[in-house]
Amino acid sequence: MSRTFDIVLGTVGLVVAIGLVAVGFFYMIKKSYDPGQMLVKCVFTIPFVIGCILLGVKMGPFGPFLIVFMAVVLSYMWTPHIAEMITSPFTNMFDGGNEPPEKKPYYSIATAKRKRGFYLESIVEIRRQLAKFPDNFEGVMLLASVQAEDMKDLPSAEMTLNHFCASPKAPPKQVAAAWTTLADWHMKIGVDVDSARASLQKIVERFPETEMALQAQQRMAHLGGVEKILMAQHDRQRVVLPEGVNNIGLLDSTEFLKPKEIEPGLLAAAHVKHLEAHPHDSEVREKLAVLYAKDFQRLDLATMELAQLINEPRHSPKQIAGWLNQLANFQIELGADVATVRATLEKIVELFPSLPVAEIAQRRLARINSEFKGKEKTPGVQLGVYEQNIGLKYGSPRKL
Questions:
Q1: Which CATH number is correct for 281-374, 1.25.40.10, 1.20.1250.20, 3.40.50.970, 3.40.50.720?
Q2: CATH, range 108-234
Q3: How far is CA 148 from CA 56, 99, 152, 189, 237, in A?
Q4: Single pTM value for the model
Q5: What angle do CA 156, 160, 163 make, to 5 degrees?
Q6: pLDDT in tens, 22-64
Q7: Which has fewest Cβ within 10 Å: 160, 287, 353, 398?
Q8: Helix axes 338-351, 317-333, angle to 10 degrees
Q9: Could you tell me the sign of the dihedral formed by the alpha carbons of 367, 372, 375, 376, in that order?
């Protein structure tokens, strides 16, 4: 029984040893710089070892010399590979090991041809790279850029970007960036507000109730003003300048030359009308809040406008914290009590407890009393009556 057990145990041990050696050889072949050479060494080593062992047994007392010879040959062949396998986990941390470089497209040739004015050749090179990496955003935008900016072919650029955006694998931020860029091209190259608005509207419809949709809506609100600027650049008309004032240095006053400021009431009405058409325009709403606070001293109206901005969840934490700080400034300037201002600043800490804006708000809360003291009016000091024109006199009065 023990004899049989020893045979089975020896057989299992031999199989395990052969398996470990085979795994080691496979690992070395896979990680080698020259797998073909490694395979040749493996094919040579196995019969060489078996032959040396069998021949050593037959040689009797001279067998150990043959085993030594075999060991020298194997060490010469395999020592570099074994040493590399042992040290590679440490060296790979510095040189990257045998990991193949990440496959990615290269657009340097296309960019060079574009700079030299070979636009068609550049497009061909870009398409060659996109054939290998069809979802590469950099290549898609580069192709559309050459088509729109260099070839002045907006329809082809729009087709390129729409094809990319139609893919379900396209990341949302890249889709929004592509359609936003297309809207810019429609404005700058085509001076086409309707097409630009349609591109931005796609973002709103594709990603509703997101920050990307909010940014697109805000850009749409300002398309009218951009259109006027671009149209003025394309259709330049002769500007007649009024005649200047003669002898300006001899005038008693030049107040009448200063440009007249827009009446706050008219400006507020214009902002309100704009917000009725574009309620998501945060820039204009903030201007209206400042107008209510600074010119009309109406804290309630300013608070109402800022509250709409603060309660919009699609705005970034930095923007919301900025508006809450601005509201705190208005409350201090327009006579609110300390508790009200504290509640406004504590809202920042409550909404964003782990962000830097919360730490800034806490520091401001710590010195809020000093801000109120700085707004208190210092009582005037009544000065005595002194001799007039004392600065124009010189010398000391002589005694008679």
A1: 1.25.40.10
A2: 1.25.40.10
A3: 80, 39, 5, 8, 27
A4: 0.58
A5: 135
A6: 666 666 666 665 666 666 777 677 777 777 776 766 676 766 7
A7: 398
A8: 180
A9: negative
